[in-house]
Amino acid sequence: MVNIKKLKEKILSGEKLTSKEALSLCDIEASQQQELWDAAEEITAALCDKTFDSCSIINARSGKCPEDCKWCAQSAHYKTKIDTYALVDHDECMRVANLNRKAGIKRLSLVASGRKMHGKEFDILCEYYNELRRQGGLNLCASLGLLGKEELQKLFNSGVTRYHCNLEAAPSYFKSLCTTHSVEDKIRTIQTAREIGFEVCSGGIIGMGETRRQRIELALELLRIDPHSIPINLLCPIPGTPLENEQPLEEDEILNTIAFFRFIHPKKILRFAGGRAKLSRDIQLRALKIGMNGGIMGDMLTTIGSKVDEDKELIREGGYKY
Question: Residues 27, 262: contact at Cβ < 8 Å?
């Protein structure tokens, strides 16, 4: 059996798990799950900030994406029933930003479909960011694809402080989910963003048919880029995509995965992202205690989000300040 107590004590002493130790968590038995969750909760309580890191997103460009990511409703390769548009209207962007500001959400990100945002549309979004910076009250983030150094620098100069680019899945599994770009393409963008001065937000999606070992492999791969924030999305199977019939992970395995990520990233923000609204309130609360100390609130691109007031109540009940 896995010696969970020994691994926990090593982390609490300030050491990091080796890859071998992290991968040993694959072998936990069902009878050890409660011990694992309790240990992760202890690590979170001891090493993480108790202020919840809230954020929200605006879908700045929707659909018609040339990439063939099998999980994604926005890919032009699949016939899904999402709304498509070239660029969010200025007034709509500012209206939604103001709603988030009034709700007390700390961060706002514009998220765009496509391999990368560029050209005139990119310039317009930079103007949006400059305006949002002048208005104040929100930390600004962006998720605009595989940008190059010049584009990232312009974005940084516009007031964006955190760049988001998910690795999505373990390298050993990603190639079976997407053929139009690679994990290494993502890491190059992330490394350039970090060199410019951005904080990095990068995580992935679980429940896409990967193994437990591959979920831990993803957590280990993220050590390469040392993200400030790690979103953990639960797959929402979208009709029309190749993963439309994928069976959801059991709730216990979702909690196990959160615990694995907390063991491997003991001080990071683990961010509740897409798919969490399908979990029961009790499981969401348990997830907060185990390790989820950040979250996307409000709408979630092409999947259901959650109500901000209900989220605030849940966050406080989970032991965090908002």
Answer: no
Please give the Cα distance from 147 to 152 (Å, whole number). Answer: 6
Instruction: Return the C-alpha torsion angle 178, 235, 62, 168, nearest 10.
Output: -40
182-196, 251-265, 296-310: least confidently modelled range: 296-310
Please say if the pLDDT value at position 184 is more than 60: yes
Concatenated DSSP letters of 256-312 = HHHHHHHHHSTTSEEEE-TTGGGS-HHHHHHHHHHTEEEEE-EEETTEEEE-HHHHH
Strand 298-300, strand 303-306: pairing: antiparallel
Phi and psi angles of residue 173, each rounded to the nearest 5 degrees, phi first: -110, -25
Span 237-259, mean pLDDT? 95
> Residue 70 and residue 169: Cα distance in Å, rounded?
12
pLDDT in tens, 133-157: 999 999 999 999 999 999 999 999 9
The H-or-E segment that residue 55 falls in is: strand 53-61
Residue 25 pLDDT more than 50? yes
Please tell me the distance from the alpha carbon of residue 108 to that of residue 236, in angstroms, as a whole number: 22
Rg (CA), the chain: 19
Which H or E run includes 54?
A: strand 53-61
Q: Does residue 216 contact residue 26 with C-beta atoms inside 8 Å?
A: yes
Share of the chain above pLDDT 90, in %: 82
pTM of the model: 0.94
Which pair of structure tokens corresponds to residue 310?
A: 């209900």
What does residue 229 show for φ and ψ, rounded to 5 degrees? -135, 140
Among positive and negative, which fits the CA dihedral 292, 52, 117, 186? negative
Between CA 314 and CA 140 the distance in angstroms is 24
Q: Work out the number of other CB atoms within 10 angstroms of the CB of residue 217.
A: 21
